[in-house]
Amino acid sequence: MSDQVDHSRRRLLTAATVGVGAVGVAFTAVPFLASWQPSARAKALGAPVEVDASKLEVGQMMKVVWRGQAVYVVRRTKEVIDQMGKHDALLVDPGSDGSIQPDYIKSEGALRSIRPDYWIGLAVCTHLGCSPLGAFEPNNSAQVTGVDLGQGWPGGFYCPCHGSKFDLSGRVFKGVPAPTNLTVPPYSFGGDTRILIGVDSAPKKA
Ligand code: FES
Question: What residue ranges line ligand 1, CB within 6 angstroms?
Answer without folding.
Answer: 125, 127-130, 159, 161-164, 177-178
